[in-house]
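hi! just following up on the protien thing from before. the input was this:
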Amino acid sequence: MNVQAFLITFREAFEAILIVGIIVTYLKRIGQTRWIKWVLAGTGLAVLASAAVALIFQIVLTGYAAIGSQNYLRIGILFVSAGLLTHMILFMSKQTANMRGALESKFALLLTAGGALNMVFHSFLVTLREGVETVFFFAAISGGDIGKALQSWGALLGIVAAFALGHVVFRSTRKIPLGSFFRAIGFFLLLVAAGLIVQAVAVLQDMRIIGSVYTTAGGEIGHLYNLAWLLPEHPIDEAHYIADTGQHPLLPGQMGVFFKAFLGYSQSPSVEEFLIYWLYLFTVLAVLARKRKLAAQNTEAAPATSIHTA
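and the predicted 3d structure came back as:
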């Protein structure tokens, strides 16, 4: 269980650190460090809320037996978090467009209170989501004894490793130019949001709340393809593949764990998971392209208007 606890806390903590770290780095880059303490406060409150969820899950909801009913909470958090991420992506793209002119004129870019509050709330929600998922996973590997999993050395080492890797990642971003930083971060957040939506759809299908246009002869939800030979979603899937085929996949299951958590990777997606993932990506990318086009047109029109007025 120690290894499983390590993988769980490392994955969940690292994902939360990435998102919160992106928000903090963003605020530093635009000179709005006064909001960082509120972002960190939101994160701290989420940690406390996650602990409360674990306590309620352990004592009131009878632990492992209640996991199925608590999936509704997970679905809601996944969808809301994906929505907030999408809003943040669009917000950052607008700020990036305005920032270019602001930097050239040596004026500081002002962050609106509404935008800052959105970041604070999102830092709370994304941390709470990871905390709740950790509770679910710990209940699963310990048969409902969450405290036993939390007290294992694997859980602590996972958190330490996540913070260490997060420190390395964000130290390296200091050398990235501002424009490139925002484009890269925006694209990464877009992939994360798409992955969250797909995870929610997968849970809905697992619970048989929604079906699929493609099912097997036995009535089970069918899959478009199976990439277990290339990259299993989890070390358990890797072990099953080895047992079934006698061969090892090209990439280890530990990599699949992170790709699934961060990018919504699925070794065998349903038709709905596949379509919704790409539909979301193309839709948001189209909106961003449209916003960039309008911003460019406004920039070109501004000098012409000034000349005409003169």
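Residues 271-309 form the longest helix (39 residues).
The chain is about 75% helix and 0% strand.
cheers
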